[in-house]
Amino acid sequence: MSVPSTTPRPAAAHSVWPQLEPLLPQVTKPIQYVGGELGAVVKDWDAATVRWALMYPDAYEVGLPNQGVQILYEVLNELPDVLAERTYAVWPDLEALMRAQGVPQFTVDAHRAVRAFDVFGVSFSTELGYTNLLTAIDLAGIPMLAADRTDDDPVIVAGGHAAFNPEPIADFIDAAVLGDGEEAVLEITAIVREWKAEGSPGGRDELLLRLARTESVYVPRFYDVDYLPDGRIQRVVPNRADVPFRVHKRTTMDLDAWPYPKKPLVPLAETVHERYAVEIFRGCTRGCRFCQAGMITRPVRERSITTVGQMVKEGLEFSGFHEVGLLSLSSADHSEIGDMCSGLAQQYEGTNVSLSLPSTRVDAFNIDLAQELSRNGRRTGLTFAPEGGSERIRKVINKMVSKEDLIRTVVTAYTNGWRQVKLYFMCGLPTETDDDVLEIADMAHEVIRAGRAATGSKDIRCTVSIGGFVPKPHTPFQWAAMERPEVIDGRLKMLKQAINSDRSLGRAIGFRYHDGEPSLIEGLLSRGDRRVGAVIRKVWESGGRFDGWSEHFSYQRWVDAAAEVLPGFGVDLDWYTTRQREELEVLPWDHLDSGLDKDWLWQDWQDSLSEYEQDDCRWTPCFDCGVCPSMDTEIQIGPTGRKLLPLTPVDGGGLRLPSGAQQ
Amino acid sequence: MPIAFSQGFTPHPKISYASAAPTGVASEAEYLEIGLRAEVDPEQLRRALDAALSPGLDVLDAVVAGSGSLADRIEASHWRIELPEVDPAVLDRAVAAFTAAGEVLVERMTKQGRRTFDARAAVISIDVVPPTETPSGAAAVPCAILELVVRQVTPSVRPDDVLSGLRVVADLEPPVSPKVIRLAQGTLTAHGAIADPLDADRDGTAIGGR
Ligand code: B12
Ligand code: SF4
Q1: I want to staple A491 with a disulfide (CB 3.0 to 4.6 A). Which of A261, A401, A437, A485 is the partner?
Q2: Which domains does chain B have, with CATH numbers?
């Protein structure tokens, strides 16, 4: 299907708009392909020396709000000689038309062909975007396999959380960056700029080598994987002398020095989030053992209350958004979250601006926070994530919150006017039994009972939302076996019956869950090695697209593809998913350094099995997870003691021209 | 912009669109009404909005709304339809058949489900434009051009309904997707022409610079 690698790169990057436009009336939501958003940047092609195409490999409506891409887009475009444009996954209807009419994968900014760029950066927050990556590569006319690419093809760089184990896509990407991207993209840009200025000596191979030598850009082709006769990995070693044995993650320190996004993109089409999101800190050391994000983003680095205030002010002025999201892995844990919320609430009193926090920790939510979040009468959704139904399983996963805490917290929300809260749990956790899951029903019943008693009203609800547990690389559960989908589905069915066993309470409880099957495939992709690449390719060839969307995801397609290619390697789907790993097994990502000490991870896994909890290093002494010494980083937290000052009121009927908007 | 919001738990900005063009259709004449919290100079508002919107979405004019709703002033719409690879003579015959018919029933999916309605009565004029007026950016292939003035009715009769009508009466099947442009909409004059719906609020002088 792919275009042979001998086709020359398009000379100058002309717009494909004339070819694209006639196709748009024939597809759903054509607005997602036109670009021109407030905040979008179009630069002169010829004036740029290094050109990036950035992709979020999902539909525009999911990809546009993505913070990672928005940040990198802005950081890159601030450089005078660098140009960055965005591209998203096209829906199958447009894909078919593009193939028929020969229209290549394009950027939404200036509608240029992706293949014309120097670097094609793809952001993976989830592994379910892998098939969409293959579609984009193929539509772009770039050879599918990295090994077949020439100097006329862009360097494909993967980033985002899933890039901490890029092995399943190692055949398709040229490089991967682990960790924070702000400085990484600047460093890559500098290397590409210099190499081009020198006349591109040594071609693509030399460029990749220069990237690899930084020790923080992983170039899979420079590493060989050897396997044992039983299918396990024997070792992963460099196949040339001048690349490092291990590649290290990047950590952006001092978030106050990187106040992005400054000019958030304002979509014309409807998207999953329409708000100005500010990360209030990165990293999390709560230590939930299933949480890859918490493990790989250590240590905690707070953005100060004053920088957050400044960003909110400028971000809202630029964008006109009416909602501010204070984003992080556990926002209520910021050392000055109270002052931040009350300060912002005061500053925006009497306006339509509302505040929201993503999923809030039960123990950190209190009446003050509740009141600040609801100050202007608008209450954005509240989600609490106890994750496990029983006290026992919560010890296993290190989610230290008691049932009493949860009930008290939810009741606080109800008495402060919330009518509806969402409770998030996981099913299929290590050591989990039916009883652990059934306790979720008791918890939900008690929440409703206590809520009715406290408010004297029957008009309160809660939604129990359950996701399947997927063991992730670089976590203490990286060795764990997954539960079979049938077992998970059985437990969810029992839970549903238990919730509805009391009709009166059951009526006030919504139940949302994901089947076990998609999780199993996520498990294959998250802990897979290079052999899994053949499965991804097979699935894609048989039509697999948009695997994060239940209406597009086909479990059978993945099972069939796995059954077709994996036995050739002496392994199968179960081997990757429901098999428990041993301590000494070489894991596919062992040569990729997240800073976490493997011995510490193993010890934490053993502690988990003996239901022993681990504290947070922000409030107790360092417990030697390994990150800070190996990455030369440190915890950066407040309190700063500073407060947000009242804003000088914007003159009542003021009209403002958005600064820097394109005309 | 000091936009006004509706009351209630989930306040919405007060914006209403009068007979917006269907998705995928180009337009030179869309109108919307915005509720504001404070008085502003219309020209400054026009500039601020124009700066915030995408290139190609140009805000041409703004006036302070007088009495009566905007929707009431949208009586008819003027459309141009370019039909690449259609022989103008064939189109001529189809249009003649359409004009001759008393009623042309067409079907379309609406929010209320599949509906059948007359596409003929609302059409005030339908003309094949001489090919001397070359279409926008089209290649050197034969191209027939149609201009329509259609009355605003319920359910609305859109350009694609008229094209469906041409298929019904004369089996006209455009080989490639037609390009549709709305040229104007507004109040209908006695002579069947369309007048700018903002004229009534303008006291004779245009505020916006065109
Ligand atoms: C907002 C959010 C969402 C939103 C918006 C998603 C979007 N469009 O961006 C919604 C609600 C849609 C969502 C959905 C999901 N989410 Co979510 N989400 C988040 C949240 C709260 C913030 C993400 C964020 O903006 N981070 C900040 C940005 C700046 O970080 P970043 O994207 O990682 O980017 C940095 C680096 O990774 C790097 N980088 C990124 N891309 C690239 C590319 C290149 C080339 C380079 C060099 C570097 C680079 O540079 C960036 C700057 O440093 C996080 C939790 C968190 N605080 O991270 C969870 C989180 C990312 N989501 C998660 C999950 C599981 C999901 C879902 C799969 C849930 C589901 N089962 O449906 C879906 C997947 C959606 C999809 N198809 O992509 C998990 C990821 C799991 C993991 N890795 O362990 C997280 C970590 C939450 C958690 N603790 O479980 N999510
Ligand atoms: S090294 Fe110590 S201080 Fe740093 S994140 Fe790990 S436990 Fe916390």
Answers
A1: A437
A2: 72-188 (3.30.70)
